[in-house]
Amino acid sequence: MSRTESAAALVTALDVLDVRFPTSEHLDGSDAMNPEPDYSAAYVVLRTDAGDGLEGHALAFTTGRGNDAQAAAIATLAPHVVGRSVAEVCDDLGGFARSLVHDPQLRWLGPEKGAIHMATGAVVNAAWDLAAKRAGRPVWRFLAEMTPEQLVAQVDFRWLSDALTPEDALEILRRAEPGREERVARLLESGYPAYTTTPGWLGYSDEKLARLAREAVADGFTQIKLKVGADLADDVRRMRTARETVGPDIRIAVDANQRWDVGPAIEWMRALAPYDPYWIEEPTSPDDILGHAAVRRALRPIKVATGEHIANRVVFKQLLQAEAVDIVQIDSARVGGVNENIAILLLAAKFGVPVCPHAGGVGLCEMVQHLSMFDYVAVTGTVEDRVIEYVDHLHEHFVDPVRVTGGRYLAPSVPGLGAQMHPDSLKDYAFPDGPVWSGRV
């Protein structure tokens, strides 16, 4: 194909698939608010007529029922994408993202929150996957090789300027420019720190918890996480079991998945305090900024972490302004895609708060690792007190699954975002007619 023909290439289709995994059968992913989740993906494929065989793949993560609604939300964006120039999309990803977010009618369903915003994030992430594949780079490196000016152009600063301006962002990024190549080399050599939630699902027995915790420590993890919030006596027992199993030097984070009001959050965590919890994650509503601040003041030195259900950069901004969190937890599939997550990473850097992403779900480990690695190379230049969540479920369904060894994520080398699933997995787990589901529903 000639350069002229390639330049004229168009996006020809936005395919959306409803893909679900029956994880509820073994209580994988179970927590106090989601006792029987079926990890699911509203899965997106951007197709083009470029003739190079490249496609953009991404997903919005759900826990089963409602995945069809999420897929329908993504499909509403097709008219905004199909027919656009591939070069226009891939060469101006910031402009592309803003064109979706600012649709004057669809934005009414948010604005910038809920299923329509997650749909936007899935399509935007698929565009990043396509652009990075065309550049022959994994997304983390594709981002880390951009100039500060190019990175600032990705961010929508509307509603942020009281906390983060383009000038602030440029200063942060320019300050991190020296040493980029050395950090890339270090990342390729030794990877990025991880922690694991695999031992801690609420539906697991104490014996399974202890066995998996021992295995996690043997595998090199220095932090594990337990789900809490259903029953206080059970949580005290499980926390005691975990602490006795891993010893005093392994961090144990706990996650309530929004179960509590502010007062009960404080009381419950004081009961767990003798076992030295490192952080309490999602102690209350993700929208309750002042509630998180009150919990943080009451529980110091236990840290407060949140983010996986936060709808957009504005709520992250306010959490940071209110000194309500010690740990920012970005999610690759909750906000408006890579672009909005760049904004959140810059906000966290401005306020000096570490980012430890959420990755409990299908495909989330594969995607979010790119954002943390970019943050290390081009934004903060540090991995101190920073870890990416790792959950050992469903990676076999991905063309380029995460690689974790010695408690560290190894840097991806395959071009793209890592969200592309094997064709057989997409076929077998299609809901409700795929062979895995045909006998269940």
UniProtKB/TrEMBL annotation:
Pfam families per UniProt: MR_MLE_C, MR_MLE_N
One GO term of the biological process aspect: amino acid catabolic process
Cofactor: Mg(2+)
Keywords: Lyase, Magnesium, Metal-binding
Molecular function GO terms recorded: L-fuconate dehydratase activity; magnesium ion binding
Catalytic activity: L-fuconate = 2-dehydro-3-deoxy-L-fuconate + H2O
SUPFAM superfamilies: Enolase C-terminal domain-like (SSF51604), Enolase N-terminal domain-like (SSF54826)
Transmembrane stretches, start-end: none
E.C. code: 4.2.1.68
Boundaries of every Mandelate racemase/muconate lactonizing enzyme C-terminal domain copy: 206-302
Top-level enzyme category: lyase
CDD domains membership: rTSbeta_L-fuconate_dehydratase
InterPro entries for this protein: Enolase-like_C_sf (IPR036849), Enolase-like_N (IPR029017), Enolase_C-like (IPR029065), L-fuconate_dehydratase (IPR034610), Mandel_Rmase/mucon_lact_enz_CS (IPR018110), Mandelate_racemase_C (IPR013342), Mandelate_racemase_N_dom (IPR013341), RHMD-like (IPR046945)
Descriptive protein name: L-fuconate dehydratase
